[in-house]
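Troubleshooting entry. The earlier prediction with zinc ion gave an output that would not parse, so I re-checked the input for stray whitespace and re-submitted. Clean input:
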Amino acid sequence: MSKAVVVFSGGQDSTTCLIQALNQYDEVHAVTFDYGQRHSEEIATAEKLAKQLKVASHKILDVTVLNELAISALTRDAIPVSNELMDNGLPNTFVPGRNILFLTLAGIYAYQLGAESVITGVCETDFSGYPDCRDSFIKAMQSALEQGMDRELKLVTPLMWLNKAQTWALADKYYSLELVRDQTLTCYNGIVGSGCGTCPACLLRAKGLNDYLDDKAGVMAELDAKC
Ligand code: ZN
């Protein structure tokens, strides 16, 4: 029996990954990390979706220790989300070590469940600001987990080379475009669905959706060529 653990935030990307996993694996478990996000709606959204999509289990892990250490616009209400990059070239929503911590914990959960894969919606195509979303990081992390736990563990990144329009096509491929559009939370201002419409996450999401809706057949063909 095939088993996977999906790192699940309740956003567009991880929800699309979860839906795909439910179509590809016999047993799918979801794990959501509570690190004191700006908006606890994110956790509530993930909980609701996990229930609705009928995952085998949904774990919400308290990792607020990350919030204590890592200072970012996503972990401090006093820091507004900026469209400008910081002096080090990273967006101010970057949370240092976040994916290192999340993938380590998801890897431990996979180990306990006997799952062969950990699936994460990271992507380096569209939003290249985060170093811990790069393919080279994922490969290094997989190697660290496999060596550290002395077993095979695949870190699967279905969205790594997709742009946002193609990610929408992937949701549509599994007849879930409306679910992802209306029920997921990507907005940095904590508004479900199409969001506030002005933060960087909303702009990226809306542009991708428009690009997909403008040329459904074309984008779907690009997606099929990549998967
Ligand atoms: Zn927004």
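This one parsed fine. The pocket of zinc ion is lined by residues 187-189, 195-196, 199, 201-202 (CB under 6 Å).
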